Automatic annotation (TrEMBL):
Residues covered by the Carbohydrate kinase FGGY C-terminal domain: 277-475
Domain spans labelled Carbohydrate kinase FGGY N-terminal: 16-241
Pfam families associated with the record: FGGY_C, FGGY_N
Similarity comment: family membership: Belongs to the FGGY kinase family.
Record key words, sorted: Kinase, Transferase
GO MF annotation list: kinase activity
InterPro entries for the chain: ATPase_NBD, FGGY_C, FGGY_Carb_Kinase, FGGY_N
One BP term from GO: carbohydrate metabolic process
UniProt protein name: ATPase
Length: 532
């Protein structure tokens, strides 16, 4: 659209809003019906470790959303000289899993427990054994059952259980619903029915420790919707929550709220069977849309769904970019002492490009990027750790190479399970995330790590907020007009701007050498967790 057409779309309200609450940033984007971003806003936040629980304050959820929206409104006013008053459709996405429990009167019963908490091991093990279906520690049902096993008093008062995206959607629309992708991180989904597995619901309610509560599991879970299903409208109270200036009108169509995995699949056009995508950020996950069920149950492979309900094999790691960010801040501080002000893009570009001179095996250096526990390597807590021996080659190039290698290491371990045990691999992975923005450096390392081609689109840094906005546009099409796969192929990704890198044999060998050292050194990390 040109300037005049975009101005007309804004005036008529033919724009859609996508909001995503990620681990380190809340982002909102406003797009036209041709899927171009016309305004954006963001808010930086961090989880807090309080009484041993990783959490975010719900007050900051709203202050972050409101500031992000205010930036969009100001952007529209500045560029197009008009006030944003009407939005045709809105979608909310957020980090998946976790635990938000509310009483029947809407009161929060316990602080938000995020996906980052490794505190539900017994519950996850017991439920996996009961269902013969992998229940990760992050999932909402694992958090609920662990609270039951711990005999936490709040469990008796639960009237509603949801995710972060479901909570925000509820407050904006009054509807207690979830998109099927986000719901698949709450409780196992039955592909045929498109909702929670009836058999598993019955098994859970029959557990001795569950029977004594006044609720049953189905009545406290959100209703499950597929992409394209109507999920309510923006209420007057919701509009006031979103836009504190009071200009935004009620009535926007609400898309089913989704998890960041679902929006990652949409923003990389990876919802069709046998496609794969990877999202890298504070955490990282890879997903392959399955055309057949797995033969076995694996504790390191989750079964979730696309936003339209197809089963997906997902490998999720709790730690990816946080340790790199911490080291980058050290280099930034050093630059400031020299009187050099490095903007973030220049800082990361300078550090990442240094790896072009690195040894292929990273010079014998070793790093564990664990700010929190890591399920795949069976670490209950995190101790970021850098290790070298006297013969290691400690150079800047090798040091940064080690950081990037370590960021993807647990992901490779999980993906190797699918490749070696189930002979499942994507022909190419479409990847997104901030680590992939610098001239192909992270992209090439990821391709070498997985020994698979990796494609990065021009929207790699935008990620989920844009993907959620696309789902909001899709919601306007109505149920059944066109499948989500065809919608993305035929209307959204008609001329994708992307770059694909293939694995380099020498790089693959170098990464394998690093992985042998990484796996051999895991007892060092385990000892650090015990001693520090």
């Amino acid at each position: 659209m040109n300037l005049v057409e975009t101005s007309r779309a804004i005036q008529q309200g033919n724009v859609s809003l996508g909001i995503e609450l990620g681990s380190t940033r809340i982002k909102a984007v406003l797009i036209t019906d041709d899927f171009n971003i016309i305004a954006s806003g963001s808010y930086v936040w961090e989880n807090q470790l309080q009484d041993g629980i990783w959490t975010y304050a719900l007050d900051e959820v709203w202050s972050g959303i409101q500031r992000s929206y205010a930036q969009i409104a100001a952007d529209v006013q500045g560029k197009y000289h008009m006030t944003l008053t009407k939005i045709s459709s809105i979608g909310v996405s957020a980090m998946m899993h976790g635990y938000l429990a509310f009483a029947k009167n809407g009161a929060l019963l316990t602080p938000f427990r995020t996906w980052r908490n490794n505190i539900t091991e017994q519950a996850a093990d017991d439920l996996t054994q009961l269902f013969q279906f992998n229940i990760p520690q992050r999932w909402s049902i694992a958090h609920l059952y662990q609270a039951i096993l711990n005999q936490e008093p709040h469990v008796n008062e639960i009237g509603f259980l949801t995710t972060l995206a479901g909570y925000v959607h509820w407050k904006l629309s009054g509807e207690k619903v979830l998109g099927i992708g986000d719901a698949s991180g709450v409780f196992p989904i039955d592909e045929d029915s498109g909702t929670y597995s009836t058999a598993f619901l019955g098994q859970f309610d029959s557990l001795h420790d569950v029977k004594r509560y006044p609720w049953n599991i189905q009545e406290i879970l959100p209703k499950v919707l597929r992409a394209g299903d109507p999920a309510g409208t923006l209420t007057r109270q919701g509009a006031q929550l979103l836009d504190v200036s009071g200009h935004l009108q009620e009535g926007s169509l609400m898309a089913p709220p989704e998890g960041d995995a679902g929006t990652g699949m949409v923003s990389t056009n990876s919802v069709r069977k046998r496609t794969g995508n990877i999202s890298v950020g504070t955490s990282a996950f890879s997903m392959i849309v399955l055309d057949k069920p797995l033969r076995n149950v694996y504790r390191d492979v989750d079964i979730v769904t696309t936003p339209n309900g197809a089963p997906v094999a997902m490998v999720h790691i709790n730690n990816c970019s946080s340790d790199i960010n911490a080291w980058a801040n050290i280099f930034k501080e050093f630059a400031e002492r020299l009187g050099v002000d490095l903007k973030p893009d220049r800082l990361y570009e300078t550090l990442f490009l240094a790896t072009t001179k690195a040894d292929l095996d990273a010079g014998g250096l070793l790093n564990y990027s664990y700010l929190s526990g890591e399920n795949i390597t069976k670490m209950p807590a995190g101790r970021p750790l850098f290790v070298r021996n006297p013969n290691s080659s400690l150079t800047l190039a090798n040091f940064i190479q080690t950081q990037l290698y370590a960021a993807f290491a647990p992901l490779k371990m999980g993906m190797d399970i699918l490749k070696n045990e189930e002979q499942i691999n994507a022909d190419v992975f479409v990847a997104q995330g901030g680590l992939l923005k610098t001239q192909g450096i992270g992209q090439q390392i990821l391709s070498n790590a997985l020994n698979t081609p990796v494609t990065v689109m021009s929207t790699a840094g935008e990620g989920g907020a844009w993907g959620m906005a696309v789902l909001a546009v899709y919601a306007k099409h109505g149920v059944g007009r066109v499948s989500l796969e065809d919608f993305l192929d035929q209307e959204v990704f008609t001329n994708p701007d992307s770059v694909t890198l293939n694995p380099e044999p020498s790089g693959v060998a170098g990464y394998e050498a690093f992985m042998k050292r990484y796996q051999a050194g895991l007892p060092i990390e385990s000892t650090a967790v015990q001693c520090i």
